[in-house]
């Protein structure tokens, strides 16, 4: 029986060769047909492996590797690779090691079985077998294998055989990456590596030295001081530049560009933050930059590495200018990749060598017209970095032209960049306003959300430009409502300065003749336009309402328009209209004061982190501007927020008052939120007295001609209104002898956690029978560890002496998260309200 099996095996046909398998697989017309061929061949290979067929094992593993390259599973051949490695035949070892590098990795324990074989082959008498072992160890050796075999690698690194030395150097790089603590073992062997004439050994030696310098600061210092590595590298690089034609190393007329690039990278590491090393390599870098041929891509690669090295070391100023000029020449290259690399490099250096980069401004601006989108983006970013007070007009002209013609994905970033540059370097307010309006006209749908309030603030603060601006905006939106931010700004300005528009007082340009009805026609068209968003309609309706105090002949028409929108399906618009109707019917005597012109808005710096804007090599803090509340939809959003807080209709919300620098007439904003508030008891002259107050107006200050708060009586116990998540809110109370209906509550917010609470906002609401006013808080940051407190004053008017109830809303940022909480305070002491 045993002999019969042996005879059967001997009579089995020999497996097909690898070349025949490749030819057969390529004839497959479908994926299924190919899969069937592969499965059939894999079955035959498995059978051969089970029969321990040593004759064709090498052929079968080779076919298996080809199937692995096609993406089919070949893991069942791993042990066969180890058997081939253990073979004494070189052809078997070659396929075995190749299979090990492809099929094995350090995540599989099988690879440890080949450690002894590799060790034996590293000591083999044949250099090609040693080379196979070095390649395999350098490709997939695990940290355990590297520790066991590092001694053999170090021994081969000292051999005189250049074929083995270059492979041993690359294998040493892998050993260092896996086991960094073995780095010192290879230090003695590196001393003579750079004296080798063989370029292969030089190349791998530079790679090894680069790896050691990058991974160990101690090694870097050692090579700088003790080994004097820089002079050796300079000598090698100089020989490469000055050497004549060498067919063995020549690439497009340049001697061994790969070795030159490696040396330049190592010089960059050695010269970084080191004056002596940088000085030693300045001359050779200048030689490379001036003597390298730029007609071929090989030369451009060397020049690019030279530029990076010059910019990264402490080089001379003249050398840095030379490097930037090289990048400027790259911008004129026909190759898109070279132009992109040049723009990217210039963008990195513009902050340190701004004047040198400025010389190439025209070439950089020309790149904005490139067809490649990646080059366009880099050119746009670099153009904004080059903007300064001297070239702002010319650069903005080019960038506005680019904004007009660029793809949609660029418009948002380009518009934001123009806004920032115009704000920082605007030569005049008129130029600033014209530039922002041009952006809104060209790409209004792509601008940031804060563009509208920023422009409104700019216009408000430019008092002498009001007539010019409103006329320009009026003409800009005639018949075109597609750019919603532009329409919103125009509606706001027409509402504020409509009287200037109608009077034709513009001195900046030829005034236009506009009637009151024509202005209202435009705003009504905005209201009914399908392109208008809810926010835009809010702006338009508020503008129409403001014009009731600026126009004299169309008040009845305005009343009619406002009453129509009192039944609008848009809840926000409906709420606006209902409030304005109430203003017409019940508080008409207050209308002119409430709708008077907005005061000049001052820029303030927030308590949060300052935005850093980097341009022209300078870093300056850009304080965030206080955004003016647009006269249209903002009150509605505040009311909605407070209604969410209150959760019912029986309570009147109050928002915090504005800072004391704001004129008292702005207190009319509170009326918008109060709706049909009953002001019974207030004399008709109360509205007139409001603007005369020096402090922010308390809604019912007009009830008494005497000061509200003096002769303060003490003795009311304080309460803890809120204590949660480390935040504690305490109320202390005071009563006025002159007006017993008024209670002054001082809140104190403290923080017991280990981190500050930022952007802290306290809001409160009381029932309709009370009146409440929040004054400005002392800060928006609650310090950690109870090291400080925020104080804020609340004035409560309680004419009916009812028990005081209050709902509070707290919002703040803590530990990187936005926090919000609601609470109800019902434990006020009787002395505070009786």
Automatic annotation (TrEMBL):
It comes from the Eukaryota. One of its GO terms (cellular component) is perinuclear region of cytoplasm. Coiled coil: none annotated. It is a peripheral membrane protein. It comes from Phascolarctos cinereus (Koala). Residues 606-618 have a biased composition (Polar residues). Residues 606-643 are annotated as: Disordered. Subunit of clathrin-associated adaptor protein complex 1 that plays a role in protein sorting in the late-Golgi/trans-Golgi network (TGN) and/or endosomes. The AP complexes mediate both the recruitment of clathrin to membranes and the recognition of sorting signals within the cytosolic tails of transmembrane cargo molecules. Pfam families: Adaptin_N, Alpha_adaptinC2. Keywords: Coated pit, Cytoplasm, Cytoplasmic vesicle, Golgi apparatus, Membrane, Protein transport, Transport. GO terms for biological process: intracellular protein transport; vesicle-mediated transport. Residues 714-829 form the GAE domain. This is AP-1 complex subunit gamma. Belongs to the adaptor complexes large subunit family. SMART domains: Alpha_adaptinC2 (SM00809). It is found in: Cytoplasm, Perinuclear region; Cytoplasmic vesicle, Clathrin-coated vesicle membrane; Golgi apparatus; Membrane, Coated pit.
């Amino acid at each position: 029986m045993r002999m019969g099996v042996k005879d059967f095996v001997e009579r089995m046909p020999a497996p097909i060769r690898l070349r025949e398998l490749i030819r057969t697989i390529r004839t497959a017309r479908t994926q299924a047909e190919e899969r069937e061929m592969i499965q059939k061949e894999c079955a035959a290979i498995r059978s051969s492996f089970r029969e321990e067929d040593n004759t064709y094992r090498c052929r079968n593993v080779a076919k298996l590797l080809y199937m692995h390259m096609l993406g089919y599973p070949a893991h069942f051949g791993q042990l066969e690779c180890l058997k081939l490695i253990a073979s004494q035949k070189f052809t078997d070892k070659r396929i075995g090691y190749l299979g090990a590098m492809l099929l094995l990795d350090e995540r599989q324990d099988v690879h440890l079985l080949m450690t002894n074989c590799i060790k034996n082959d590293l000591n083999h008498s044949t250099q090609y077998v040693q080379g196979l072992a070095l390649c395999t160890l350098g490709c997939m050796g695990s940290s355990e294998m590297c520790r066991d075999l590092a001694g053999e690698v170090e021994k081969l690194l000292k051999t005189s055989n250049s074929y083995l030395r270059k492979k041993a150097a690359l294998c040493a790089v892998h050993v260092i990456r896996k086991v960094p603590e073995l780095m010192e073992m290879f230090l003695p062997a590196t001393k003579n590596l750079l004296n080798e004439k063989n370029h292969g050994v030089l190349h791998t030696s530079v790679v090894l030295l680069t790896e050691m310098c990058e991974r160990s600061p101690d090694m870097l210092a050692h090579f700088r001081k003790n080994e004097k590595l820089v002079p050796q590298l300079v000598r090698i690089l100089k020989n490469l530049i000055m050497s004549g034609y060498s067919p063995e190393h020549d690439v497009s007329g340049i001697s061994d560009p790969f070795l030159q690039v490696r040396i330049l990278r190592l010089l960059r590491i050695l010269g970084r933050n080191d004056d002596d090393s940088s000085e030693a390599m300045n001359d050779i870098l200048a030689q490379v930059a001036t003597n390298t041929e730029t007609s071929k891509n090989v030369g451009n690669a060397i020049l690019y590495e030279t530029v990076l090295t010059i910019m990264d070391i402490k080089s001379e100023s003249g050398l840095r200018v030379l490097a930037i000029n090289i990048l400027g020449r790259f911008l004129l290259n026909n190759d898109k990749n070279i132009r992109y690399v040049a723009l990217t490099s210039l963008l990195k250096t513009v902050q340190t060598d701004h004047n040198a980069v400025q010389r190439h401004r025209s070439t950089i601006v020309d790149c904005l017209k490139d067809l490649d989108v990646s080059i366009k983006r880099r050119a746009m970013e670099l153009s904004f970095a080059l903007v300064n007070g001297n070239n702002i007009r010319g650069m903005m002209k080019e960038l506005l032209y680019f904004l007009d013609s660029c793809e949609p994905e660029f418009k948002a970033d380009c518009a934001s960049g123009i806004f920032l540059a115009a704000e920082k370097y605007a030569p005049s307010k008129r130029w600033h306003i014209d530039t922002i309006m041009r952006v809104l006209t060209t790409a209004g749908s792509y601008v940031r959300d804060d563009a509208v309030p920023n422009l409104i603030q700019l216009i408000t603060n430019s008092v002498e430009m009001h007539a010019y601006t409103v006329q320009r905006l009026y003409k800009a939106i005639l018949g075109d409502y597609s750019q919603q931010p532009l329409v919103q700004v125009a509606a706001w300005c027409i509402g504020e300065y409509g009287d200037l528009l109608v009077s034709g007082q513009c001195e900046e340009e030829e005034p236009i003749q506009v009637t009151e009805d024509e202005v209202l026609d435009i705003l009504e068209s905005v209201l009914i336009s399908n392109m208008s968003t809810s926010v835009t309609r809010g702006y338009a309706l508020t503008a129409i309402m403001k014009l009731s105090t600026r126009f004299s002949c169309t008040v009845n028409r305005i009343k009619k328009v406002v009453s129509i929108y009192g039944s609008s399906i848009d809840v926000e618009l409906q709420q606006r209209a209902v409030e304005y109707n109430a203003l017409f019917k019940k508080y008409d005597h207050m209308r002119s004061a409430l709708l008077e012109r907005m005061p000049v808005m001052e820029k303030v710096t927030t308590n949060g982190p300052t935005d850093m804007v980097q341009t022209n090599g300078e870093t300056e803090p850009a304080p965030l501007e206080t955004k003016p509340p647009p006269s249209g939809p903002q009150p509605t959003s505040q009311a909605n927020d407070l209604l969410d807080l209150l959760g019912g209709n029986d309570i009147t919300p109050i928002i915090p008052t504005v800072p004391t620098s704001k004129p008292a007439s702005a207190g009319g904003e509170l009326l918008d939120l109060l709706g049909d508030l009953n002001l019974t008891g207030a004399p008709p002259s109360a509205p007139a007295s409001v603007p005369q107050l020096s402090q922010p107006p308390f809604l019912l200050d007009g009830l008494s001609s005497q000061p509200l708060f003096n002769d303060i009586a003490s003795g009311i116990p304080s309460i803890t209104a809120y204590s949660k998540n480390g935040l504690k809110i305490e109320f202390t109370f005071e009563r006025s002898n002159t007006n017993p209906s008024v209670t002054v509550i001082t809140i104190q917010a403290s923080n017991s956690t280990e981190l500050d609470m930022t952007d802290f906002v306290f809001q409160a609401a009381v029932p309709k029978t009370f009146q409440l006013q929040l004054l400005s808080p002392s800060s928006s940051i609650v310090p950690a560890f109870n090291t400080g407190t925020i104080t804020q004053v609340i004035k409560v008017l309680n004419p009916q002496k009812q028990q005081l109830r209050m709902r509070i809303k707290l919002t703040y940022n803590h530990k990187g998260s936005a926090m919000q909480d609601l609470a109800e305070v019902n434990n006020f002491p009787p002395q505070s309200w009786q």
